[in-house]
């Protein structure tokens, strides 16, 4: 049986708007090169595969958090609005094989590692078709924006394409729910992650009870992030962590 959204979740999804900020994220030369290449891939796809929903790209989660905190990071999650990570990865591979692309970006063998794809296989709890590769010195994962629907009998969710808002709300902590929009060069915040980061606070995007019921392992993740970043855990989340069920 699927869990229905509670009133708090419905309000979050229907009314919450992104706070878009031109925050000082300074890209390294390699990150700028990667950004421009990915934007070219998106344009290539939109031109060769016209669709009512053009491909729109965001860097998500940990990379955004660490860049804002001044922490060096080489792991980048690319969130795609309307196609799977596996599909986008294959298009990327084709685009990078074009002589014009190789010349424009001076791509060498060391710049582009082998592309690994992971097909969706719900029978083995693999509900996403993703791709990963090493590109310009970064470990890059490609995955679609998604929403998750949990049942009462399993912590493995049913996954559907989702909006940026829905993708942000499914995450474990607000500081991990930020996006860097490649097309606007701005940070998007749907869950008050920026203010929580300034307050050095680990807080769940949804009510802690719902977040932990959906996936109890998030308790451990929040403790790990609080320890790593030197942040405090939100009092309500901390209270829920103390309940024996978790």
From TrEMBL:
Keywords: RNA-binding, Transferase. One of its GO terms (biological process) is tRNA 3'-terminal CCA addition. Residues 58-203 form the Poly A polymerase head domain. It comes from the Eukaryota. SUPFAM superfamilies: Nucleotidyltransferase, Poly A polymerase C-terminal region-like. The keyword RNA-binding applies. GO terms for molecular function: ATP:3'-cytidine-cytidine-tRNA adenylyltransferase activity; CC tRNA cytidylyltransferase activity; RNA binding. GO terms for cellular component: mitochondrion. Belongs to the tRNA nucleotidyltransferase/poly(A) polymerase family. This is Poly A polymerase head domain-containing protein. It comes from Parascedosporium putredinis. The lineage of its organism: Eukaryota, Fungi, Dikarya, Ascomycota, Pezizomycotina.
């Amino acid at each position: 049986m699927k869990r229905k959204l509670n009133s708090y979740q419905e309000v979050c999804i229907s009314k919450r708007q992104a706070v878009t900020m031109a925050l000082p994220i300074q890209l390294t030369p390699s990150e700028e090169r990667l950004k421009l290449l990915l934007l070219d891939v998106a344009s290539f796809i939109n031109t060769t595969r016209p669709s009512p929903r053009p491909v729109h790209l965001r860097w998500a989660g940990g990379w955004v958090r660490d860049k804002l905190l001044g922490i060096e990071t080489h792991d980048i999650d690319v969130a795609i609005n309307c196609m799977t990570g596996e599909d986008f990865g294959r298009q990327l591979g084709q685009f990078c094989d074009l002589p014009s692309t190789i010349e424009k970006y001076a791509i060498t063998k060391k710049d582009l590692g082998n592309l690994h794809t992971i097909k969706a296989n719900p029978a083995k709890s693999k509900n996403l078709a993703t791709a990963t590769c090493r590109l310009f010195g970064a470990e890059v994962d490609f995955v679609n924006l998604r929403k998750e629907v949990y049942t009462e009998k399993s912590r493995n969710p049913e996954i559907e394409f989702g909006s940026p808002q829905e993708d942000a709300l499914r995450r474990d902590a607000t500081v991990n729910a930020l996006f860097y929009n490649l097309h606007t060069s701005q940070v998007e915040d749907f869950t008050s992650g920026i203010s929580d980061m300034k307050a050095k606070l680990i807080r769940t995007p949804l009510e802690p009870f719902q977040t932990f019921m959906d996936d109890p392992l998030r308790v451990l993740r929040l403790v790990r992030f609080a320890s790593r970043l030197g942040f405090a855990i939100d009092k309500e989340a901390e209270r829920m962590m103390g309940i024996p069920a978790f």
